# Entry
Amino acid sequence: MIQEDDHPVRLPNTLDHDKLAEAALGLLALTLHDGRVWKALDWDLMNLLYRKGWICDPVSKTKSVVLTEQGEALAGEFLHKHFGRPPGEVER
# Structure
């Protein structure tokens, strides 16, 4: 049995957690092999974000990537566009 207290979810209540979970699982499916997935985004997806000019070159030894000015401006916008709750909607 999963103990919810052991794995708290600290996401804003203004976001639809069910939609976020489904999107995250879908993205993880890009790295699926023998029932396991990486805890990071697929390299081809990262390259796509780079080609769009939203992140700096993802090819490096660091475990993080820098958002471009455009990427930083769009990131929050896209988060709320695709996963924001309508005003007044309560969490399920």
